[in-house]
Design goal:
Elements (H helix, E strand, L loop, with lengths): L3 H34 L4 H4 L1 H16 L1
Length: about 60
């Protein structure tokens, strides 16, 4: 049984590098997605506070 365990270990290792190659490309895409998500919350953060008062001013002006 010990012989089977080592056999499985190397077999899995062989799959790891192969799968890593595929995820490698996904990793690049994932990194880009993360970068896009970070900048997204940053810009909206600034306009959010500006929009909040604007919204209040609009109704106030109408009243």
């Amino acid at each position: 049984m010990n012989e089977q365990l080592p056999d499985d270990a190397p077999a899995r290792l062989s799959i790891d590098p192969a799968q890593l190659t595929d995820p490698g490309e996904l990793r690049g895409g994932h990194a880009m997605a993360v970068g896009a998500v970070l900048p997204k919350p940053i810009p909206p953060d600034a306009p959010e506070p500006a929009q909040a008062p604007e919204g209040d001013k609009d109704p106030a002006a109408e009243s």
